[in-house]
Amino acid sequence: MEQTMELTTDQFIRDFEQTFNEQQQTLLQNATPTELFLALAHTIRQYYTPMWLERNESLSARQEKIAYYFSIEFLPGRMLETNLLNLGILDTVKEGFTQLGLDFTAVKNAEHDMALGNGGLGRLAAAFMDSLATTGYAGFGNGLRYKYGLFKQRIVDGYQVELPDAWFGSLGNVWETRKDHDAVNVRFFGNVYMADAGEGKLKPVYSNAQVLRAVPYDVPQLGYKNGVVNNLRLWDVEIPEEYELNYPTIADRRRVEDITAVLYPDDSTEEGKKLRLMQEYFMTSAGLQTIVKSYLKMGLPLEKIYEKVSVHINDTHPAVAPAEFMRILIDDYGMEWDAAWNATTKVMSYTNHTILSEALEKWSTGLFSFVLPRVFQIIVEIDNRYMAQMGAQGADYARVENTRIVRNGQVHMAHLAIIGGHSVNGVAQIHTELLKEDTLRDFYALTPEKFNNKTNGIVQRRWTQIAAPVLSQTIDKWIGFEWRNDIHALRALNDVVDNPRAQNDFWEVKQLAKKRLADYIEETTGVHVSTDAIFDVQVKRLHAYKRQLLNVMHIIKLYWDIKDNPEGDFTPRVFIFGAKAAPGYHFAKSIIKVINELANLINNDPEIGDKLKVVFLENYRVSLAELIIPAANVSEQISLASKEASGTSNMKFMMTGAVTMATLDGANIEIRDEVGEENIVIFGMTKDEVYHHYETHDYNARYLYDTDPVLHRVINTFVDGTIPRCQSEGSEIFDALVTYNDEYFLLEDFQSYVAAQARVSALYRDRERWMHMSMMNIANSDKFTSDDTIRQYAEEIWHLSLPHAGRHRAA
Ligand code: GPQ
């Protein structure tokens, strides 16, 4: 149901000027973009606050079921334009700024990205918040209010340098509201023993525990033109007044503040691991405590809490939730074990985001029981009862043993999440299949009914209406405006993909986006790139399995092709990278260094000229993605088949008209199904071929290196001094590829990748054919709306119904 705020430009200007005058003691014309941004944000706050209050009142008055999405990461990026778009007043505000003679773009750029996430997982969580509000479901986020978000990346001498990202700095987060009255205490450490509580009951007694205060800050999540405002609750840590004497020095306090200081503390040390576990428990415990409290306010029986509450465990970071929920129900509210367990398993559900084993969290029982002694007791009890119950059912012993929570001195968090919940899902079809047949196969054999797939999605509004306004206008021109409210209407574009005038329009749109990016590239790197070249983009975290290195090997091959035959016919390309490497991930950082040195070599070779350029854009983040993605001709999605759970940038590129260069991995497969085989470029091994290598151990990278002369030359380029200033990084790469047998099969996929890239070059030269492909991608991208993904979560996992619209109804 569409519903926009009624706001005239004149009214907006009055509101804005009034807020500005109250806040900033200066003239509008003298204000900095930041001052203007703050005034604008506060104006918007006034607009949505009544809706927010009303939403909360109506949800509790109607006792609506609420799903709580627990995630250690949320990556919304900038909120200004999303909030304006969703209120339906983006154009009004832009017009108001024009009338005031102010530069809206400068003001929007003054907002610091809210980067409380690393990459896909955090961005997905933020997308789900938007889609929950947009679909109208009551779904609230629960996470941490990090003082420093994901590090800021600088490139110095080709190396990644990490700087702290003080995202709310001295200005604060303009969107949040502190909710003091919902603060709760969270306990760590100490000793716990069970004492007689009378009536044959036991109660835990704590000694020497550390008690910390969890204070929530709420960030509103606005639905698209529907008047709905949901809530993202981020927890911060404080020292409770009654315990202040325990922290006499600033250093003592700092250690506490560390809990919400950084997004992923370095966990290569025992201290770092402890801090990470404390973060996970802190947000989980605080969230669950307040959820139970607000449920009880309705006066309903606690045993039935699952009728009004769902808790979603986003990856394993909040997977302590089932045990903590049991603790709250039993210790704090006196419930019996069986009733508590029944409620817990009905409340909890879990999403897995990777099959890579290093990301499936495990904690040593020593550390876990030291930090969370009571929760550990409960986990041991859950584990014992699970064994007993499975044994009684006659389940296969080996399977049960493999699925235990506590095993070989470790606590397996994914196992706790699966045993303690009713649903486990993967994030793309192939990923869910792999969970069933490999990673979690014993669980699947024991409890197949828990497994389901929910293919990821994106907030398409952000990637078109906000990131690509001209593309959006062009879509309007050809099929009307309906797609802005119902994304499935985009399919009407299928009718014009072969219309020469439409093709021409969409070509021009892409050229404009490329020009915008080319200007940015020149400004930030000094490299001039031609918009006549194919813009070939790979932006994502730097990880060996994502195979940025395969892309690099292809670039080296092209470099030699041109050097060998400078007069040859060549389709010009600009290769654009953006990628942060985890601070402790040495190999990934070496790849960044090599990309930068290769870029120096190529970009400064007059013989190469405009035929080939390589650009590494530093500090890749959501707001930079908004600039880069709409400008891409080719979207590089080249992970080793089976390794990328889904990918989500692949969906954003598709939607803005890039052609995907893809392995049959993650959601690439579903993209192919939507656009058709001929409108995507597929290469490389399938997951079955990869698994065949694993089973037979027959892979021999050195043999490929020795026998394929092209590969041989490309790989030698890493170590023969051709690329200056990266001797040691080059030999690390050589060793990974040849000496250590190429874990991600780059050598095997190389020839097929090169052939696929040659196909892309040929296709691009046939503009009609290329525009057909490009527009087919836009026209068939509706499947990947996170609005539909979240509807499936809401209906199939959380069993929510759509709350009735409040007073704010469409006229
Ligand atoms: N993903 Cl386990 C992350 O971004 N961080 C993580 O710690 C884990 C997964 C990604 C995954 O690699 C992508 O394939 C997915 O598209 C994304 O999660 C969202 O599901």
From TrEMBL:
GO terms for biological process: glycogen catabolic process. GO terms for cellular component: cytoplasm. This is Alpha-1,4 glucan phosphorylase. It comes from Alloscardovia macacae. PANTHER family: GLYCOGEN PHOSPHORYLASE (PTHR11468), GLYCOGEN PHOSPHORYLASE, LIVER FORM (PTHR11468:SF3). Belongs to the glycogen phosphorylase family. InterPro entries: Glycg_phsphrylas, Glyco_trans_35. The modification N6-(pyridoxal phosphate)lysine is found at K652. Its EC number is 2.4.1.1. Its cofactor is pyridoxal 5'-phosphate. GO terms for molecular function: glycogen phosphorylase activity; pyridoxal phosphate binding. Transmembrane segments: none annotated. Pfam families: Phosphorylase. Keywords: Allosteric enzyme, Carbohydrate metabolism, Glycosyltransferase, Pyridoxal phosphate, Transferase.
